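Lecture 7 notes: from sequence to structure.
We start with the chain below.
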Amino acid sequence: MKPFIQGENLSKRWGETMLFENISFTVFEGRKVALIAKNGAGKSTLLDLLAGKETPDSGKITVTNDMKIGYFEQIPKLNPEHTVLEEIFVSENEKLKTIKEFELAVTKNNQAKIAEISAKMDELGAWEIEVEIKQILTELKIDLHDQKIAELSGGQKKRVALAKVLIDKPDLLILDEPTNHLDLEMIEWLENYLDKTKATLLMVTHDRYFLDRVCNEIIEMEDSQIYRYMGNYSYFLEKRDERIEMQQASVTKAKNLLRTEIEWMRRMPQARSHKAKYRVNAFSGLKEKASQKINTDSVNLNVKSSRLGKKMVELENVSKSFPGVKLIENFSYKFSRFEKVGIIGKNGTGKTTFLNLVTQALQPDSGIIEIGQTIKFGYYRQDGISFDNRERVIEAVAKIAEFITFEDGTKMSAAQMLNFFLFPPDTQYNYIEKLSGGEQRRLYLCTVLMQNPNFLILDEPTNDLDIMTLNVLEEYLKSFAGCVIIVSHDRFFMDKIVGHLFVFEGEGKITDFPGNYTIYRNKQLLDEELEKSKAQMATSKKEPEKPQINDDSIGPQKKKLTFNEKREFEAIENEIKQLEAEKEILEIALNSGILPHDELFRQSEKLVLTKELIDKKEIRWLELSELL
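Predicted structure tokens for the same chain:
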């Protein structure tokens, strides 16, 4: 494999903090690599070094000749005076320059210019690229081409920056948290796009489904050591556990040997100067190995929640609109104890507005919201809070509480609590301005949870948190003795936590779906398949089948599967399994005796269609299997 970019003995400090020291690794052509490390370990800084935005304190970065790098940063640097279209097409690529001229001419409806540039597009063979660019812009919902960059929201700017990098077709794509601020449909599209692209990929992301489905190599950075795993996220988890077990066994063995060596060193002082000098040297190495600490620290979040009364939060016929936008219409719901609700929907459908209504930061246009007397909200906001950068970490936490009470009744000081959040004593007395973005989010999470809420509202809690922190947060939420509402674009996180979903469909409509995100998405895909099948069956009934001509003079010829038929055959078994699972769910629902009459009729109709589709798929499977 051809090395694309190589880092040798890289070291970087940020102020007084050593981020990493003497790390080395190589990204090879065609690989799709994820970089995993804890917050504050210097992931974004390392990407800046590789992209040429920063220089290392020591070490060398080697880039293959003529290789083009595209870098998507967490905080994109765009020209505020450019329009969206001008910014997207900032490139030295002649085809992209021509497409930019063409799109500007179309925007201004300049027919003469359109005709002139169309000829040049033909000459350069740029039409295919233009179609792909339009697809990228459509999927990322970038349609305000004339709007100035300065007028866009943070999320819109990130989508423009992402489109700009993808459209430029670099040889090496470096992506720093590309899924933040994308809705679920965009994330799925980007996942498929990166899976199919031939570009080499290096990215940082906390989205574990994304990691699992896109990456074929993972680089873990821990304690200035680099560990490579030649597989996806599932493979990484398995091999990382094996590595930690081996290291722990190695350290234990070294400690046992060290005891023996210490006794020897004390008993045999004369040997230090001549015959056993090699053993003295070995003793030093053994001492270093035995003193190694295997860093398996985790965040402990078992904070006691405030007492809950019988009444939680009740909404009755609640509506909320803003000029020209209807977000919530006649929504009613009563929250119950220990309930964990996920909220999904496209950007701008009212998810954050709903949270602000529940917490009474906003008032509804109509309807009633009643809050139980014992309810104590803990609200983790998407935009976080503004810490005073001149404060030390310990000061920010101590302002909220000097001591925190745990479920078992034990108390812990603010300093001890910070230790659990992976802020060691030396970091606790750092100024907040020295923390990375991810560390500040972790500190913010700590300040929310330590207030002992019994009704947690988490608006995009997964953005900028490392995977280690997410794992423990998930374990905490599963055993949290209160009510939880989560808005998140992290599918893995939602699947592990929520029992049902509020689906914001737009135009004020909110649907309560009984299941997690994957169940919801599978049902969506199945419904789409059923609709297609229904349309095909309606068409086939209208068009009579053409009689087949049977020529006995032609001998029997065995037809082989085409490439597309092979792919269809590989996919059809899974489709049948999904349909069978859906059929079983429908049958259980129909036999439950709790469905209202109109829902009973609708589900019965769907069951008939599902069975018809299963029959159709099975017949097709048999047809294809005979050609194998």
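Points to note: Residues 315 and 333 are 5 Å apart (CA to CA). The first helix runs from residue 43 to 50.
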